[in-house]
Design brief:
- The chain is an alpha+beta fold and 103 residues long.
- The chain is built from 2 helices and 5 strands, in the order ββαβββα.
- The strands form 2 sheets. A 3-stranded antiparallel sheet has the order 3-4-5, covered by helices on one side.
- α1 crosses α2.
């Protein structure tokens, strides 16, 4: 199923999944945090619809220099995970529920 338009869960933006990814990156950076816990760096995403989170270590031996060089790429990967969750659970999942209730 090709999604032509998806609504942002936080404002009135609507666009393709790729456009929603860019919108998240531009307007909703708070959905992703990159932080250090002990000696390890990790990223965490929080779904704005259900508050479900995903916590992932970046990789062993990451130093501040690595993080500053690759922060945007790490952020983009985290947004991919968030977008996949949002589309799967909250957009396509609701569409499937709606189709079942019609039958």
């Amino acid at each position: 199923m090709l999604l032509e338009s998806v609504n942002c869960p936080c404002d009135d933006f609507a666009g393709t999944p790729r456009e929603l990814h860019a919108h998240f990156a531009e307007k909703h950076r708070e959905f992703v945090t990159i932080d250090k816990s002990g000696s390890k760096w990790f990223y965490e995403v929080k779904c704005p619809s259900c508050s479900e989170g995903y916590h992932q270590a970046i990789r062993s031996g990451v130093d501040d220099e690595f993080l500053s060089e690759y922060e945007e790429e790490i952020f983009a990967v985290a947004l991919d995970i968030l977008l996949n969750h949002y589309l799967g659970e909250h957009v396509l999942g609701l569409m499937a529920d709606d189709e079942e209730s019609v039958e």
